[in-house]
């Protein structure tokens, strides 16, 4: 896993990003697991990182003094009450550290407007519906909002697929943490501008054939979203410039086809 992270780090470094990968503190060999977070070094600086059970929590700050706490999780897999309780404990730990790290970001006298934002994202190994009420309650009670704007039907937001089964197990939740004693009067400080997901044609193919495939080399699909901060006018951040480049040629997904898909990032 170390060599794989090194490959990723070199790739992202060329684009101006730095990153950190979670380590297992209790492992005497310090074996790495697959939670990694990267940030644009020209826009953010790393303030703190915490390696918890199944979660990597990083705290970064931009030039305007806005702090972001990101919990990158890969919660316990498997079905059953014991596995669900383990996921609850892992999420509770991640949320506790998110709140503590966000609360420790005290605004200076010159930046009394400063607020913190929290994001928890990754593989929850749960669709976060009525069957996982405790997981869902933890997020809602901590004022997190889902990028799916509520219930995520697996047909539309499928993120995991194997032969004979597919589901929505990967999520992004976002929250605003006001650095003052009165949060009830705090206006809505962000909104989800855009959801990035696979198109219907690809989802239909993957529901029937499963993953991984030549075009999608993992059993999970990448998910993402654009979040726009509603900040005071003088502190408005410039929206990111995003260029979506289509493949040079159209590809046809069919069982046994020999296809590859490149996703350039600008």
What is the distance, rounded to the nearest whole angstrom, between the alpha carbons of the first and last residues? 26 Å
Query: What about the largest sheet?
Result: 6 strands, mixed
Number of helices: 4
- Uncertain regions spanning at least 5 consecutive residues: 109-113, 181-186, 239-266
Helix share, percent: 10-25%
From the alpha carbons, calculate the radius of gyration and give it in angstroms. 19 Å
Order of H and E elements = HEEEEEHEHEEEEEHE
Percent of residues in beta strands: 25-35%
What structural class is derived from the secondary structure elements? alpha+beta
Query: How many strand units?
Result: 12
Mean pLDDT: 78
**Overall 3D geometry?**
globular
The strands making up the biggest β-sheet line up spatially as 3-4-5-6-10-7
Write a concise synopsis of the structure shown:
By secondary structure, the protein is α+β, with helices and mostly antiparallel strands. Helix content is 21%, strand content 29%. Helix 2 packs parallel to helix 3.
């Amino acid at each position: 896993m170390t060599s794989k992270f090194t490959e990723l780090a070199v790739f992202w470094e060329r684009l101006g990003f730095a990153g950190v990968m979670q380590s297992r503190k209790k492992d005497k060999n310090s074996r790495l697991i697959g939670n990694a977070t990267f940030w644009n070094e020209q826009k953010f600086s790393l303030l703190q990182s915490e390696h918890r059970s199944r979660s990597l929590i990083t705290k970064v700050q931009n030039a305007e003094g806005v702090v972001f706490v990101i919990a990158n999780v890969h919660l316990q897999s498997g079905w059953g009450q014991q596995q669900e309780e383990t996921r609850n404990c892992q999420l509770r730990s991640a949320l506790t550290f998110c709140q503590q790290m966000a609360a420790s970001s005290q605004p200076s006298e010159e930046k009394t407007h400063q607020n913190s934002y929290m994001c928890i994202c990754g593989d929850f190994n749960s669709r976060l519906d009525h069957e996982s009420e405790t997981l869902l309650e933890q997020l809602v009670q901590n004022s997190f909002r889902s990028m799916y704007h509520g219930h995520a039907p697996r047909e539309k937001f499928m993120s995991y697929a194997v032969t004979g089964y597919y589901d929505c197990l990967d999520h992004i939740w976002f929250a605003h943490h006001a650095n003052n004693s009165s949060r009830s009067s705090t206006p809505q400080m962000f909104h989800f501008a855009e959801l990035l997901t696979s198109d219907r044609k690809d989802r239909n193919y993957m529901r029937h054939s499963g993953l991984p495939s030549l075009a999608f080399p993992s059993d999970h699909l990448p998910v993402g979203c654009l979040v726009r901060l509603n900040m005071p006018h003088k502190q408005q951040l410039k929206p990111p410039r995003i260029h979506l480049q289509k493949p040079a040629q159209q590809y046809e997904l069919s069982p046994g086809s020999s296809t590859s898909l490149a996703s350039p990032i600008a």
